[in-house]
Amino acid sequence: MDPRRAADLPPLTRENVLSTSEVADLLGIPKSTVHQLARRGDLPARRVGRRWLFLRDRVAAAVAPLEDPAAWRPNRDAK
Fold it and tell me: Which CATH number, 1.20.120, 3.90.1690, 1.10.10, 3.30.1380, labels domain 12-61?
C-alpha cells in the first residue's frame, strides 16, 4: 500500500470499525438488509472471513446524500 494513502485513512479503532449489528442498529434496519446492501456495494464494507466490517466515516458518507431533500422526492423517470 502507498504510505501516503495509508496516512489518509482513519485509524482502525473500536470507535471507527463497526460490525453488521452496529450498522443495523445505527441505521435502524435489519442485519439481513445490511448484508444485502454490503453485497450489492450500496454500503461500503469489507468482508474479513465470515464477518463484514464497516468504517464509520464511510457509512456516514454513504447515507449523507439522504440528507439532501431531493433524495426523498419520487423519481418520476424510474420505470
Answer: 1.10.10
Q: How far apart are CA 55 and CA 19, in angstroms?
A: 9
For residue 11, give the C-alpha cell: 485509524
Element (H, E) at 53: strand 51-55
Residue 79 scores a pLDDT above 70:
no
What distance in Å separates the CA atoms of residue 31 and residue 8, rounded to the nearest whole number? 29
Predicted TM-score (pTM) of this structure: 0.71
Q: How far from 43 is each of 13, 18, 32, 47, CA to CA, in Å? A: 20, 12, 13, 12
pLDDT in tens, 36-71: 999 999 999 999 999 999 999 999 888 887 777 765
Domain ranges of the chain: 12-61
